[in-house]
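queue> pop job 88
queue> type: inverse folding (structure -> sequence)
queue> payload:
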């Protein structure tokens, strides 16, 4: 059995056209999207977690922004004119930070109602970006974060932020019946859709998501049970 938990002769390869992993048997020349029979699921999940591809030199992050009267644009979808001081904004953000780091709520979930950025409607998701695309202070902190980690208060010309670096997934779709929160769906960059192949890919990555604190143990357990009935991996 290989390091990836695959039966002898099988290996994980990557489709550049679809930007997805697939499984290839060098002897038979057979290729397939689903893991072959007798795959060690736990080893495969660990292997995929260590070798998941990310856009080179880029990261995927979300943020929660609190503006103040000295911000570059002191207004938002929440408040046309923001009059709070910078010190008040920092205190508000620290309150949000405590709630997030205590596990009470996710950054994405809180951003929906509390962020002064238009990305609030996407759970604070800023998508994938490289160096030179964000404000310097924001970029330095975002690139220094580990996947899943939430920053402390970050001060930029836009206001004060909390930043969370997300794992850039190579799975494209998710079953719309999934019980995960919208924040989790957004962080995985999934689009609606459902079939056995997609369920299999999701099942493979659930362990990775749990280790990066992007799903709770309850969500992880529920989703694995739900998708294992649909997936090729049993």
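queue> result:
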């Amino acid at each position: 059995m290989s390091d990836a938990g695959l039966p002898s002769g099988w290996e994980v390869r990557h489709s550049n056209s679809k930007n997805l992993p697939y499984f290839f048997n060098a002897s038979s020349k057979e290729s397939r999207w689903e893991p072959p029979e007798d795959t060690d699921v736990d080893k495969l999940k660990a292997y995929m977690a260590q070798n998941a591809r990310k856009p080179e030199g880029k990261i995927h992050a979300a943020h929660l922004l609190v503006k103040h009267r000295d911000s570059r644009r002191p207004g938002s979808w929440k408040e046309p004119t923001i009059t709070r001081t910078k010190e008040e904004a920092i205190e508000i953000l620290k309150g949000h930070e405590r709630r997030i780091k205590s596990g009470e709520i996710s950054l994405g979930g809180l951003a929906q109602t509390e962020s002064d950025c238009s990305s609030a409607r996407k759970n604070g998701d800023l998508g994938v970006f490289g160096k030179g695309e964000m404000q310097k202070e924001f970029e330095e902190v975002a690139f220094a974060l580990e996947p899943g980690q939430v920053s402390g208060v970050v001060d930029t010309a836009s206001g004060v932020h909390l930043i969370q670096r997300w794992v850039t997934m190579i799975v494209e779709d998710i079953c719309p019946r999934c019980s995960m929160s919208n924040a989790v769906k957004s962080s995985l960059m999934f689009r609606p859709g459902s079939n056995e192949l997609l369920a299999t890919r999701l099942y493979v990555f659930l362990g990775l998501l749990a280790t990066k604190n992007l799903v709770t143990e309850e969500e992880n357990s529920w989703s694995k049970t739900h998708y294992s009935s649909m997936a090729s991996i049993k």
